[in-house]
Amino acid sequence: MQFVNITPEEFEQFTQNNFSHYTQTRVYFDSREQKQGDAHLLGVKNDSGEVLAAGMFTEARALKYFKYFYSQRGPVMDYNNIALVDFYFKSLTTYLKKHNCLYVLLDPYILENIRSADGEILKSFDNRTLIQTLDKLGYQHQGYSVGYSQTSQIRWHSVLDLTNKTPNQLLKEMDYQTRRNIKRTEEMGC
């Protein structure tokens, strides 16, 4: 395996075919590059050149000389493949040191629980091995935030399966209050 800078095209192809958040997409990368020029596309390739993991990291200055790096809802990889996780994050640490990184923050887009619309847990995922692996590599789990925070991403995402559904079908499947709020927003011209 090799830890490398990947091209925007490789990043796009990989994230389109793997479970990822919109903040780990080519569109988001292009936007960051155009506005700030501060994004790094870092990946792992196997010996055949196939991308196995990819992540977009943004940087910001810290204390003049140092940098703070952030991978919003990334990097994207099979987090059940502990050998890949280990290799990626060891290599990432080396890369970041070369770029004067003072601090790195990541919040991988991994599932903890799948819940019903009422919050009832339908399925749970055991991420303890992943958390332990990252901890051994020097990455510290910050716990599960509650409520709103200015220093962390939201934990709960509402996700709709849009496959083969029209906008009208989606609207009909939503609960009454949600439909009403959407219609009021449209009426206000928002």
From TrEMBL:
Q: Which UniProt keywords apply?
A: Acyltransferase, Cell shape, Cell wall biogenesis/degradation, Cytoplasm, Peptidoglycan synthesis, Transferase
Task: State any GO BP term from the record.
Answer: cell wall organization
**Superkingdom assignment:** Bacteria
Q: Which PROSITE patterns match?
A: FEMABX
Q: Which SUPFAM superfamilies match?
A: Acyl-CoA N-acyltransferases (Nat)
Enzyme Commission number, as recorded? 2.3.2.17
A GO MF term = aminoacyltransferase activity
The record's principal subcellular location, in a coarse class, is cytoplasm
> Which compartment or compartments is the protein found in?
Cytoplasm
Q: Does the keyword Lyase apply?
A: no
Q: Which GO terms describe its cellular component?
A: cytoplasm
Pfam families per the UniProt record, alphabetical:
FemAB
Q: Which family would the database say this protein is a member of?
A: Belongs to the FemABX family.
Protein name as it appears in the record = FmhA protein
> What is the originating organism of this protein?
Staphylococcus gallinarum
